[in-house]
Specification:
Largest sheet: none
Distance between the termini: 19 Å
Radius of gyration: 21 Å
Number of strands: 0
Mean pLDDT: 83
Helix content: 55-70%
Oligomer: single chain
Number of domains: 2
Low-confidence stretches: none
Order of helices and strands: HHHHHHHHHH
Number of helices: 10
Strand content: under 5%
Shape: elongated
């Protein structure tokens, strides 16, 4: 079994917010303090090491970035200020961009202007949708909106099931 090393991984992770992975010298404080860490799973230290070594495939198949709930305890206890908690969030952003076939996530996470523009467009579209579907605002005073008038709840459930099926099919395509 061969292991591929990506020499550009650290550089790529910096676009997603990684500050300085070289500060970590693997003292183990983050692993010792993390409530999610076990003897079989030295978490989050292992992921920091994978990033330092350029092991993209190991990161891609690791569940640890998704397990971290970013309590910040590991970052507080780091004697070198390597911020392992934020490194886990960087890994999430990086992995999300790899899973996203549209490229939207990469652009969203790496460009502040694009992020602000995307959020503004979504907010504008939601506002227009509420106005077009007349959500029950009486004379525009917006006291008691009737959210079920936008779309009936059974329609929302069907749309959710459709999105879940689409996401499942996309993930099968990605991993198979």
């Amino acid at each position: 079994m061969s292991i591929k090393v990506d020499p550009n991984l650290i550089k790529d992770l910096k676009h997603f917010g990684l500050k300085d992975a070289s500060k970590c010298f693997h003292c183990g404080n983050c692993t010792a303090i993390c409530p999610l860490s076990t003897p079989e799973n030295p978490f989050p230290r292992r992921l920091v090491r994978y990033a330092q070594m350029g092991l993209t495939d190991k990161i891609l198949h690791s569940p640890e970035p998704w397990l971290c709930y970013y309590c910040g305890t590991c970052s507080d206890k780091c004697p070198r200020g390597a911020d392992p908690g934020e490194t886990m969030m960087v890994m999430r952003r990086y992995l999300t961009s790899l899973y996203d076939w549209t490229g939207f996530a990469r652009k969203f996470y790496t460009s502040e202007k694009f992020e602000v523009m995307a959020i503004s467009i979504v907010a504008l579209l939601v506002g227009i949708g509420l106005l077009l579907f007349n959500t029950g605002f009486s004379n525009w005073n917006m006291v008691h909106p009737d959210l079920n008038s936008v779309w009936p709840s059974h329609g929302i459930e069907l749309a959710d099931l459709g999105m879940a099926a689409w996401a499942w099919l996309r993930s099968c395509h990605f991993y198979c």
